[in-house]
Design goal:
By secondary structure, this protein is mainly beta. It has a single domain, classed as Porin, CATH 2.40.160. Helix content is about 10%, strand content about 65%. The longest helix has 15 residues. The protein is elongated and about 50 Å long.
Length: about 180
């Protein structure tokens, strides 16, 4: 929880000091479980939240974000839905303000709900999962105009989703996202 308070303070200070922008984002996720998980299929989810951008120099920006992300996977008749609040801190590299920019950085996620569902029943499985997810993010952001941009990203967990598996098993979150960003200021 302290991490998320720190992000809110960071986004606030980005807005107050220096050359900066804040905005809103929303989009779709295509997620799956990787590593030692078997026979999984992608699951469609969504994301929404806010971001800040602070200019370091004319080509580098610090971009913290705070957003909700619906993730998971499908395994035969079972559907897994994980609900995270994510905090990425990204370094954005911009060569030309009118063209796409690259970004990379770590992301911290807090799981607050997980559900397994088959055709007839739904079960809360939050207790059997790690409630903290540490991952890496890489992406591309393409401006549409001064206010809107399209954000494509890939996120790969460095931590396993399950807390009840052996040390030899590793089941990370894998998430492809496309989001629409709206810059407020």
């Amino acid at each position: 929880m302290r991490i998320f308070v720190a992000l809110l303070l960071t986004v606030s200070s980005i807005y107050v000091f220096g050359q900066s922008r804040i905005g809103l984002k929303t989009g779709l996720n295509l997620s799956n479980l990787g590593g030692d998980s078997k026979n999984t299929d992608f699951k469609l989810g969504y994301n929404f939240g806010l971001y800040g951008e602070r200019e370091i120099n004319e080509n580098l920006f610090l971009r913290p974000e705070l957003f909700f992300s619906s993730q998971g996977a499908k395994i035969e008749d079972l559907s897994y839905r994980y609900s995270y609040v994510n905090l990425p801190v990204l370094l954005k590299i911009q060569i030309d303000p009118n063209s796409a920019s690259l970004y990379i950085g770590p992301q911290f996620g807090l799981l607050f709900n997980a559900v397994a569902r088959d055709n007839s029943e739904k079960e809360n499985i939050t207790a059997g999962l790690n409630n903290v997810d540490f991952s890496g993010t890489i992406g591309l952001i393409a401006p549409v105009n001064d206010e809107f941009a399209i954000d494509f990203r890939f996120n790969h967990s460095f931590s396993s989703t399950s807390s009840k598996i052996s040390d030899d098993d590793f089941i990370p979150n894998l998430v492809l996202s496309i989001s629409l960003n709206y810059t407020i200021k």
